[in-house]
Amino acid sequence: MKKTIRGFWEFFQIIGYCSGILWETSRKFFIIRMLINIVSLSVPFAVITFTRLLINLLAGIGSEDSQPEMLMRSFLIFSLLLLALNILNKGIGTLSTYYTGLHRDRMDTVTKHRIMKKASELDLSFFDSAAFYNEVNDASMNSPLVTNSAFLAMDFVRYLVQFMVAFVCLFPFSPLLPIVFVLSVIPCTVAELRQVEAIYGFQRQYMSEERKMQYASDVLLEREFAKDVRIYNLFPFISRKFLGIWEVLFSKKRKISLRYTRVLILLSALPEIVAAVFLFLLGLSVLQELHTIGDYSFLQGIMTQVLGSMYMVIYSYTQLSDGKMRIQNYRKFLGLQGNIRTDGEHKLEKPSFTVEFKNVSFRYGDNLPWILKNVSFSFHSRQKVALVGVNGSGKTTVVKLLLRFYDPVEGQIIMDGKDIREYTLDSLRSRFSTVFQDYSNYAFTVGESVSLSDVSKAGDMGKVMAALKKSGADGFTARFPQGVDTYLTRRYDESGQELSGGQWQKIAIARAFFREADIYILDEPSAALDAQSEDEVFSMFQALYAGKGAILISHRLSNVHLCDVILVLDNGSLTEMGRHEELIESDGMYAHMYRLQAEKYQDVK
Ligand code: ADP
User: What is the pLDDT of residues 118-129, one digit of tens each?
Assistant: First the structure.
């Protein structure tokens, strides 16, 4: 009982929530559609009532006290009224389709946009978890269903009112009938609800499998994989994966559907039987002249209304119960909160400040290995700092902590005397400009791709050109027929340009240089560059950014040996720290790596 009451309460909460989003999406469309609903709800009752009067009128023709002229006039008036009502009914139907379409379009965009906004606000750590991808997938896959549910909520209210009016009309004829009707519908409703729950539960349980199918499809459809698919003839392998998962899912889903379909076929006959019995009894009473033919027609019309609206109430109720779970998940997704506290009050506004890592330890999850162990170092924001170490030693993790994509598990990062958690995220991150080793390639124009790092200056093409020059991307972009307006993809039109790995990297570096920052972070910015371009980027950087700070991560130590501080990370621990000459002198890991690379250069020479 408690569960049922809670179920109803949640259900009506969902109706409230849905009405809220419909209202927020467009007040105008909401009001118009409410008015349309009121009219389209009233018209059928008016038609039934006038039809009853018309039939009774026709049945009266020929009786002794009938006056032919008056009857004729009344007949004409009723016929015209019925015609007008039917035209109104059709017109209002078309109008409803028009406004529902517009409202639905707007609502689809609003629900999708909210998911996009939320996903962009969440901590990076969410993107490390498979469960989060399931949530994102669930929310974005279900965003059209959220719209659907919101519309169903409106339908539910409309059909419920229609049902109640029809219910009240039936009462004077037989108080028992409406109750029997409702009872006859309950088993079918319960079965439908169970089916909906079972199918949604199934979908959530196998969400990862669905994502694997989607991934298989992406591999065959996306450009990124197109070369491998052809060289290795991957279609049979990927297709087996895709169809293999589908077959398993399909057979499980079919079993669930079949189980409920059999039951539903039997149970849905019950209300029809009740209606047929009632109409039969009514027919008998007409034969016994206890009711008129008009009454029979009226009640038949009302029964059609009861049955029709009842089915729609059940339909929208069960669909909404399905939608209820989806909406609850959608709301849960929108309610997700990151672990990174964003309520710092201070603004980091000084152009020069100190940065200190104080006993920082970090791991990406409670059960995952430590990536940084008790790391301590400090530097000034105007210094050039190099992070050196083999792959996986934790260099990028240091940068991610500095930018507060994650917070240290132990220890503190202090800037200008304050824990970085005390600063607003915006003011902290605006001090830095970064190129990550897994930088992103955007299918935007050259100008847009470069100015993404500071969209407030997006229109400043002089600045874009300067950034392109600094990164060495001006050489190839100058040859594009549409210059900085050229799309860096051909997926929209043929005049777009596709870039090589090295060219993409130069665009990413230009993006970092476009932003005015205090500390530039270049994390392996040159992996895809040829030796000459790489040398140019680093020498140019040293020359142009003499007064600025930098954190440079590069495997080629010749690029970093001029830095003010070199930090050597080994397996999460800071093992060496100092200037190039000092580290060579102490003859540790850095000196060993440096000699190894220098020997290779000499070999080549
Ligand atoms: P480096 O930059 O020195 O190559 P990283 O800081 O990128 O090293 O990575 C250090 C270690 O942390 C690696 O073993 C890597 O697998 C692990 N790691 C990086 N990102 C994540 C993540 N999001 N979740 C779990 N482990 C991660």
Answer: 888 888 888 777
Q: Which of 127, 397, 570 best tests ligand 1's pocket when mutated (most atoms within 8 Å of CB)?
A: 397
Q: Taking all residues of the chain, what is their mean pLDDT, rounded to a whole number?
A: 86
> Which of 183-192, 373-382, 521-530 bottoms out in mean pLDDT, i.e. has the lowest?
521-530
Helix (H) or strand (E) holding 544: helix 531-544
> Is residue 174 located within the same domain as residue 308?
yes
**What sign does the dihedral 204-206-212-213 (CA atoms) show?**
negative
313: exposed, middle or buried (Cβ count in 10 Å: 0-12, 13-18, 19+): buried
Ligand 1 atom, smallest distance to 397 CA: 6
The ligand 1 atom at the shortest distance from the C-alpha of residue 124 is: 23
Residue 117 has pLDDT above 50, yes or no: yes
pLDDT at 529: 66
Residue having the nearest C-alpha atom to atom 25 of ligand 1: 364
- What residue owns the CA closest to ligand 1's atom 19? 397
| Distance from the alpha carbon of residue 82 to the mean position of ligand 1, in angstroms | 75
Residue 392 CA to ligand 1 center (angstroms) comes to 6
| Residue of minimum CA distance from atom 1 in ligand 1 | 392
* Residue of 124, 126, 396 to test ligand 1 pocket, by largest number of atoms within 8 Å of CB: 396
Cα of 363 vs centre of ligand 1, distance in Å, is: 9
- Judge if 570 and 485 occupy the same domain: no
CATH number reported for the structural domain that contains residue 577 in this entry: 3.40.50.300
Per residue in 510-562, pLDDT tens? 999 999 999 999 888 666 666 677 777 777 777 777 778 999 988 788 778 88
Answer with the residue of higher pLDDT: 12 or 258.
258
Size of the chain, expressed as the number of residues it contains: 605
Q: Which of 458, 487, 516 is the last residue of a domain?
A: 516
Q: Are residues 406 and 477 in the same domain?
A: no
Identify the residues whose C-beta falls under 6 Å from ligand 1: 128, 364, 368, 371, 389, 391-397
pLDDT level of residue 577 (50, 70, 90 thresholds): very high
What spacing in Å lies between the alpha carbon of 365 and ligand 1's midpoint?
A: 12
Angle between helices 461-471 and 531-544 (to 10 degrees): 120
Q: Which uninterrupted H or E stretch holds 377? A: strand 370-380
Whether 444 and 313 map to the same domain: the answer is: no
Same domain, 539 and 473: no
* pTM recorded for the entire structure: 0.73
Residues 367 and 251 in one domain: no
Indicate the residue type of 137.
Answer: N
**Measured in Å, how far apart are the chain's first and last C-alpha atoms?**
86
Residue 567 lies in a domain: yes
Residue that wins the pLDDT comparison between 430 and 10: 430
Number of compact structural domains in the chain = 3
Q: Which one of 122, 132, 364, 406 would you pick to mutate in the ligand 1 pocket, going by the greatest count of ligand atoms within 8 A of its CB?
A: 364
Atom of ligand 1 nearest to the CA of 572: 10
Atom of ligand 1 nearest to the CA of 391: 4
551 and 498, same structural domain?
Answer: no
Question: pLDDT tens, 400-456?
Answer: 999 999 999 999 999 999 999 999 988 999 999 998 888 888 889 999 999 999 988
Phi, psi of 145 (to 5 degrees): -75, -25
pLDDT band, very low/low/confident/very high, at 244 (cuts 50, 70, 90): very high
Q: Kindly give the number of the ligand 1 atom that is closest to the alpha carbon of 389.
A: 3
Spatial contact of 443 and 489, defined as CB atoms under 8 Å apart = yes
Residues 543 and 463 in one domain: no
Query: Which residues partner with 385 through β-bridges?
Result: 551, 565
Q: How far is CA 589 from CA 329, 377, 397, 562, 564, in A?
A: 51, 18, 20, 18, 18
Please report whether residue 345 resides in a domain: no
